[in-house]
Amino acid sequence: MSRKLSVALFAPLCLAACASQPTPGAPPTATGQTGATASYGYSSHVPDFATRNYEPFNRQDLVAIAMREWRLFGSPVNDDDPEDRPEPQTAAVKPERAPGLWERVGEYWWIGMEPSMTEASWTGKHDANGQLTDFVHDGNYAWSAAFISYVMRVSGANSRFPYSPNHSTYINAAASGQSPILRAQNPANYTPKLGDLICVGRGRAKTTVNFSSLPTSYGFPAHCGYVVAVNQNGQPFGRQLSIIGGNIDDAVALTHVPTDPQGRISSPSGQSYDTRYPWCAVLEVLFDAESEPDAGM
């Protein structure tokens, strides 16, 4: 082969290779993107389809992802009062430690957290060093906020959501206007929509944190769940909606929440209709696209 011919063949190959190399430190391009801008920050932990928003951040995908995770854990429904739930006495009965599921909880941590966070290396039964955790006192590794963060990340929220191992981080971000895709709404006058988060304080915060006290200047224990069904008639409450949350009896579980005929979860005076949960806020999620999933279940 002549030198001239080899150079001619090499040139287009070099151009193709050079064109495929991203600029160091630059966000990925938006090839294939149909909706929101993709330059919201990048993490090697995050699937490319979510980072580059192959589809606009939308309600339908978020609800579908939450329900997929619920089905993976066996579709448990938990309408018990959390104050009455006994703590499992053996590791064998904890779904988060079961084969195939402890790894999934690890993915919630890995994808939902930022790479610099120690929690990113946790699993459903291991700490960041790969050591088995104490299954009796595993509250130190509670993953309900990691589940919320995972669903947000995979559904394409990018860096617009304040990913955190603590629910209060994004409750306060929504209440203070620090997140462009979250807006805190008063449960007394707002009707939750599919994909929204409804939140409650836990422990002392169950009675001390309400909508009027938000945002707080401190972190507090809390729990949030994604609304996956609305305008329901059925047991156990009659009028109700359904939420899916993580780390409910060590699983991803569905909970029914009583509502009034307008679909609200609190009375006009602010009294929660749910005797188990004095809801402190609804976090309205602002999507790039408004494709509505089926509200029925």
UniProtKB/TrEMBL annotation:
Residues 96-285 form the DUF2272 domain. InterPro entries: DUF2272. The keyword Signal applies. The keyword Signal applies. Pfam families: DUF2272. Keywords: Signal. Residues 75-96 are annotated as: Disordered. Residues 1-19 form the signal peptide. It comes from the Bacteria. This is DUF2272 domain-containing protein. It comes from Acetobacter indonesiensis.
